[in-house]
Amino acid sequence: MSHSASQTPSPAQTNPGRRTFLQWLTYATGALAAAILAVPFAGYLLGALRKHQVQWVKLGPPSKFPLNETLPETFDNPLGQPWDGMAARTGVYVRNLGEDRFLVFAMNCAHLGCPVTWFPQSGLFLCPCHGGVYYENGQRASGPPTRGLFQCVWRVRNGQLEIQAPHLPTLQNTLDRPVRV
User: What angle do CA 161, 162, 167 make, to 5 degrees?
Assistant: First the structure.
């Protein structure tokens, strides 16, 4: 009897195809999941490594901006798509310092990016979201922002004030140096 008990195959021995199939199914599912996750990750890396071409957006002739006044100026973001609608419009504040010298500020608070409003009566930019306040030269006056407004790269070329766009400022790339061509 002991001889016949040793002859009885175990369940694993009787169905090795099922176990192998489930192992390969697990491997294939893992590989498919990795491929699905790798595609957007690779796209992100390729996009991050790609050098974007600098585009200049015309804001108008320098005479459009009165001396020692700060004016908002809106323009279509060159990265905009037809379905963006009004979201494709962005803005800056332009202050004419005279002799083809300008301060051009991004319209966004340096704290969390809310749009700031210029109040000429007080000579201050105010952020409605968290109470950030900036002087007319863009420097921080009070509130949560730890720095001044982001300055945009600008130039006067062929009788037009132009800014670099769609370059969005960050703490690593603050666009603090104007470019004169």
Answer: 150
